[in-house]
Fold this protein.
Amino acid sequence: MSLRVALLARDHRSLLAAFENEEPELLTYLRRWALRHQERDGLGRTWVAIDEVAGERRIAGFFTLAAASLERQLVTAGDLDRLPRFPIPAVLLARLAVDRRVKGQGLGTWLFDEALRKTLVLAAEGPIGFRVLVTDAKSERAAGFYDRRGLTRLTEGRWPCRMVLGLKALVGGA
Amino acid sequence: MARFQATTNVVLDEELDALREEMGLRENQKAELLRELASMAAWLIAQARAGRTIEARGPSGVEVFEHPALRSASLVERLVLAPDEVERLTTLLESEVAMSGALRGTLSRLAQEDCRPPELAWPA
């Protein structure tokens, strides 16, 4: 077994160019912004799945987590009592991608599980609370992936589709 | 590398020329073009630093302008929910204890101590 997940670091820079994905935005993010956001700007953190193929390291996939707050566009007076208190602190699964050459082999699920595991540890033991995990699915295929892992669609009829997973019950706060 | 840069520069020049024409500037007005582009970029950055969402609204919906460079303006990503999204989120948070089968499956995987990563087969 050679696959392992690691926080993106400078010694991974030589591996970034070989990562392949159909979405140019994901490639640009990984190659140009992920390390900068992490090290210089203190924004999201990116974890990479490193595989070893005949002694050669390859990035097989990655995911990025960031802090987010869910805020509401409009306040409707009649709903105030029922609505939760906004803004709601959230962990944003900002990106999750798999190298196109190894799609369909369970890596996306494994990366999602890793991201959720880190989110649950943060929500349960971190210095501040997080109420939900949130992600923006860019396509029906991506939304279906998150459907099958228990996330709920908030957006209907437009893209990206915002999807959430409540964390309170999962970390024993229910 | 030099060839890559040359190709890139050609593409960039073509894009800049198209923008110049779009903005009604002549060929000898590249400095003005860059000034215009810089002022537009400065406006976008200023809006992001003020914590504002930059959107394009049209009959078919709203497109949010996103660029990784603008994200450094805020350490916390502000995700603004539309009223229908707020409604669904409220319902979800009210019934959070009731877990779906899909979520139970995910939690079951997480609970496995022997949770091995997949063995990947790369094409030759």
About this structure: Chain B has two domains: 2-74, 81-113. Residues 53 and 80 of chain B are 9 Å apart (CA to CA). Residues 2-74 of chain B form one domain.
